[in-house]
Amino acid sequence: MDKVEYTEQERWLIEPKPGTAAAAARDFGIDLSLTVANLRLTPEERIKQLDDHLDGIEALRRSLRWISRSSERAA
């Protein structure tokens, strides 16, 4: 895996000062590096990524319906 280089501005978010909202988010368990990675994307790339996730969710739903119907027939 490649080492990620952060800009000075990104480092402010990755290593937040105590008492900031970013520090609270980090302490809560939010991976701030993922936030930075998403902010590096263009709006179009973010929309494409969202569409890809929605397509995956829909595929999972179709699989669950298929499995559910198969289970009902077997019973």
Give a brief outline of the structure.
The protein has 75 residues and is mostly helical. Helix content is 73%, strand content 0%. 0% of the residues are buried.
Structure, described:
The protein has 75 residues and is mainly alpha-helical. Helices cover 73% and strands 0% of the residues. It folds into two domains: 1-40, no CATH class; 42-75. The chain is built from four helices and no strands. The chain is elongated. It starts with 7 loop residues before the first helix and ends with a helix. The mean pLDDT is 91.
Tell me the layout of helices and strands:
Elements: H1 8-14, H2 21-28, H3 32-39, H4 43-74
Distance between the termini: 47 Å
Kindly name the structural category.
Answer: mainly alpha
Radius of gyration, in angstroms, nearest whole number: 20 Å
What is the 3D shape?
Answer: elongated
Q: Percent helix among the residues?
A: over 70%
